[in-house]
Write a structure and sequence with these properties.
Length: 383
């Protein structure tokens, strides 16, 4: 029994010593320093970079591609020849139209000669009639011949005008067999090959895309929760995945009023109806332009975008978790860790706020430390 009593007493003493040591090594409350930084209140989004101006160059006539005179990446000037399509069919149509026009003009010359003859005969009959030296039937025949000659001339003139219009359209189609650059820029893609036959009967087949890469537009996707915070004229910047931290700056040009339709509904009449939007993230498109004089930005690049609502340089900042709400707009309470280990409750005035940090306008100084969470053993003093 004495042995068991001694053992129990030893265990009790060891437990007491361990409790004392645990209290002496109690973890200090978590704190963070008051620092000086540049702080931004911003909306983040992802976007895609596209040329501000581009044209999908298509063929307006059917035929086989004979030559493609450029390659992707080539810089072209406006009006430069890009593609030649076999002009055989269009040339034959133009030649036939020109021949028909020449034939009509020849007929017109013959009818004009007949008109002059009919006019002379009509004048002769009138002169004879004044001397009562001709019959009434001969006068009427001369008048009818003159009217018929005039009608034939008018008919041929109308046919010539119609043929000229048709020939003009045929000549335009012949011109379409040579495709020229609609703007100065860079050939960013080619969708056809030499020898390929194009069919432009029902739709215009695309041959290539020419884009002006001097100014790019970022198509950014802003979530439904943040879109009201993004306004035209708001400053914005972005980085790219391979940009090594470089920032490109601009300002918001516009926010499109409707979200893009989902891919599976893009061609339907009921795209993006509220009843079918459940479970799908709604995003809106914000556009802004950026200069690309150095050519670092390329089409289809991904942009990590930040729309800046407010910013402050050399701001005194603390973590958001270090502040508790207080009465009054822009006012909060911080718990400052004193040098002697005590805790001081201090009211502060705040400014710009980000997701994790907040600017302190009044009440704290750089170098001080603030508690970032409630201590479990401390009672919060009443305000």
């Amino acid at each position: 029994m004495k042995r068991w009593a001694t053992l129990i007493a030893g265990v009790a003493i060891a437990s007491a010593v361990a409790a004392v040591m645990a209290r002496s090594k109690e973890t200090p409350p978590a704190s963070a320093p008051v620092s000086v930084e540049t702080l931004e209140s911003k909306v983040t989004a992802l976007g895609m970079i596209q040329p501000r101006r581009y044209v999908d160059v298509g063929a307006q006539v059917s035929g086989q591609i004979q030559k493609i005179l450029v390659q992707p990446g080539d810089v072209v000037r406006q009006g430069q020849l890009l593609v030649e399509i076999d002009p055989s069919v269009q040339q034959a149509t133009v030649d036939a139209g020109r021949a028909a026009l020449a034939a009509l003009r020849a007929q017109l010359s013959g009818n004009q000669a007949q008109y002059r003859l009919a006019a002379q005969q009509h004048a002769r009959q009138r002169k004879l009639a004044s001397a009562d030296a001709t019959r009434e039937e001969d006068i009427q025949a001369a008048e009818a011949a003159l009217a018929l000659a005039d009608a034939n001339i008018r008919n041929l003139q109308a046919q010539i005008a119609q043929t000229q219009a048709t020939l003009k359209a045929d000549e335009a189609r012949l011109g379409y067999t040579r495709i020229y650059a609609p703007l100065a820029g860079t050939v960013v893609s080619i969708d056809a090959r030499e020898g390929q036959t194009l069919n432009a009967t029902y739709q215009t087949p695309n041959v290539m895309r020419v884009a002006d890469l001097g100014t790019m537009t970022v198509w950014s996707e802003v979530s439904e929760a943040d879109v009201r915070r993004v306004k035209p004229g708001m400053p914005v910047y972005f980085t790219t995945l391979g940009g090594e931290g470089r920032r490109w700056h601009g300002s918001v040009r516009q926010v499109l009023p409707a979200p893009p339709p989902p891919p599976e509904k893009a061609s339907g009449d009921n795209a993006a109806t509220p009843a079918k939007a459940g479970g799908r993230v709604i995003v809106y498109t914000a556009l802004f332009d950026v200069d690309n004089a150095d050519g670092e930005l390329m089409p289809q690049m991904t942009a990590q975008v930040a729309f800046v609502e407010a910013s402050a340089r050399d701001a005194i900042v603390v973590p958001v978790a270090a502040l508790a709400p207080a009465e009054g707009r822009g006012r909060s309470v911080a718990r400052v860790l004193r040098a002697d280990g005590g805790i001081e409750r201090r009211e502060v005035e705040t400014g710009v706020r980000s997701r994790f940090q907040v600017q302190v306008l009044k009440g704290l100084s750089p170098g001080e430390r603030v508690l970032v969470q409630q201590s479990t053993g401390e009672a919060e003093p009443s305000s």
